[in-house]
Automatic annotation (TrEMBL):
SUPFAM superfamilies: Hsp33 domain, HSP33 redox switch-like
Function: Redox regulated molecular chaperone. Protects both thermally unfolding and oxidatively damaged proteins from irreversible aggregation. Plays an important role in the bacterial defense system toward oxidative stress.
Alphabetical GO biological process terms: protein refolding
Entries under HAMAP family matching the protein: HslO
Main location: cytoplasm
Paired cysteines (S-S): C233-C235, C266-C269
GO molecular function, one term: protein folding chaperone
Gene name tied to this protein: hslO
Subcellular location as annotated: Cytoplasm
Pfam family name, one: HSP33
Description of post-translational modifications: Under oxidizing conditions two disulfide bonds are formed involving the reactive cysteines. Under reducing conditions zinc is bound to the reactive cysteines and the protein is inactive.
Protein name per its UniProtKB record: 33 kDa chaperonin
Organism: Candidatus Nitrobium versatile
Length: 292
C-alpha cells in the first residue's frame, strides 16, 4: 500500500511530509509504457505532486507540470486533497545514458519551467512558475516553494528503476520551515540533510514514510495525518462526450459527415472510449455544441 504521512516537529517549527508510492508509480509506468529515464521523471513529478497535495484543503487539487527543451518535453501530474494522483508523459520512450550511476532526468528535461497550478475551488486558481534549476525535480520544487510561495523548504525525491525496467522504489520527503522555526533548528537541518541517504535506498530496504522522516530529520515530531495515496483517473464516457461537445459544432458535424465511430483515449489512464455516429448526433441535438 502507498502511504503519505504528515507531521509537525515538537517545537512547531517544521512541517514534515513523508511518502512511499512505489506501487502507484509502477502502475503509472506500465500504463504509460515509460522507458527508465522517463519513468524516473514521471515518478518524481507524481511524488512531488502528492507531497504538495498534502497541504490542500477539502475539494482542492493541483497540477505540477514540467516543460523543457530536452527530449522529454512535458510531464504532468495532478493530485487532489484525497491523495489521488494521475498524470501523463508527452514523450514516454525517453531513455538517456546514466550520469554518475543515476538516471539523467535533468538532461532529459533540459532548460525549461516547472509550473504549479492549484484549483482551490470556487473558481479560485493559483499559478506559480519557476525556471528549472537542475531539472532533477526535487531541487526545482524546493526552489518553487521558496520563490513562489515564500516557504523555505527541503525536498527529496527518489525513484529506483530496476534492470527489468520496473519501478522498485519511489517516494520522497518534504520539510517546510514554519515561522516558528528557530535558526538553531534550521542550521542543524541544513547540516543533517547534506548527509541523508537517497530516499530510494531507504525504500529499497523496506522503509515506510515514517522511517524516511525519522532518518531525514533525526528530531522528534508528531504525526498529524496518515493516508493512503493511489493512482486514480475519474474519466468516464460522459466526461469524454462533454470534452467532445466542447470541440464545437463544426468539428462534430464533420465527424458525423465522415460517419465513423470516433475513438478517444484518455491521456491519463489510457482507457479507450468510442462515440458512435448516433451519439455524436445526439450530442449535436442535446448539447448543441459550443459555437465555432
Ligand atoms: Zn482516464
Amino acid at each position: 500500500m502507498d502511504v503519505l504521512v504528515k507531521g509537525m516537529s515538537a517545537d512547531q517549527g517544521l512541517l514534515v511530509v513523508g511518502l512511499v508510492d512505489t506501487d502507484l508509480v509502477e502502475r503509472a509506468r506500465m500504463l504509460h509504457d515509460t522507458y527508465p529515464t522517463a519513468s524516473a521523471a514521471f515518478g518524481r513529478i507524481i511524488s512531488g505532486a502528492l507531497l504538495l497535495s498534502s497541504l490542500l484543503k477539502e475539494g482542492q487539487k493541483l497540477m505540477v507540470q514540467v516543460v523543457g527543451e530536452g527530449p522529454l518535453k512535458e510531464v504532468v501530474a495532478e493530485a487532489d486533497w484525497k491523495g489521488r494522483v494521475r498524470g501523463y508523459v508527452y514523450k514516454p520512450h525517453v531513455h538517456l545514458g546514466l550520469k554518475e550511476g543515476k538516471l539523467d532526468v535533468g538532461r532529459a528535461f533540459g532548460n525549461g519551467y516547472l509550473n504549479v497550478i492549484k484549483d482551490l475551488g470556487l473558481r479560485d486558481r493559483y499559478q506559480g512558475s519557476v525556471p528549472l534549476q537542475t531539472g532533477e525535480i526535487a531541487t526545482d520544487l524546493a526552489y518553487y516553494l521558496r520563490t513562489s510561495e515564500q516557504i523555505p523548504a527541503a525536498v527529496s525525491l527518489g525513484v529506483h528503476v530496476d534492470t527489468d525496467n520496473a519501478v522498485k522504489a519511489s517516494g520522497g520527503f518534504m520539510i517546510h520551515a514554519l515561522p516558528d522555526a528557530t535558526d538553531e533548528v534550521l542550521e542543524y537541518l541544513e547540516e543533517r540533510l547534506k548527509g541523508v541517504r537517497p530516499v530510494s535506498s531507504m525504500i529499497l530496504e523496506g522503509a515506510g514514510p515514517k522511517e524516511i522522516l525519522d532518518e531525514a530529520l533525526g528530531l522528534p515530531y508528531d504525526i498529524i495525518e496518515t493516508k493512503e495515496v493511489m493512482y486514480f483517473c475519474p474519466c468516464s464516457k460522459g466526461r469524454v462526450l462533454d470534452a467532445l461537445a466542447a470541440l464545437g459544432r463544426q468539428d462534430i458535424e464533420e465527424m458525423v459527415r465522415k460517419g465513423e465511430t470516433v475513438e478517444i483515449q484518455c491521456q491519463f489512464c489510457k482507457t479507450e472510449y468510442a462515440a458512435t455516429k448516433d451519439e455524436l448526433l445526439s450530442l449535436l441535438e442535446e448539447r448543441g455544441g459550443a459555437e465555432g
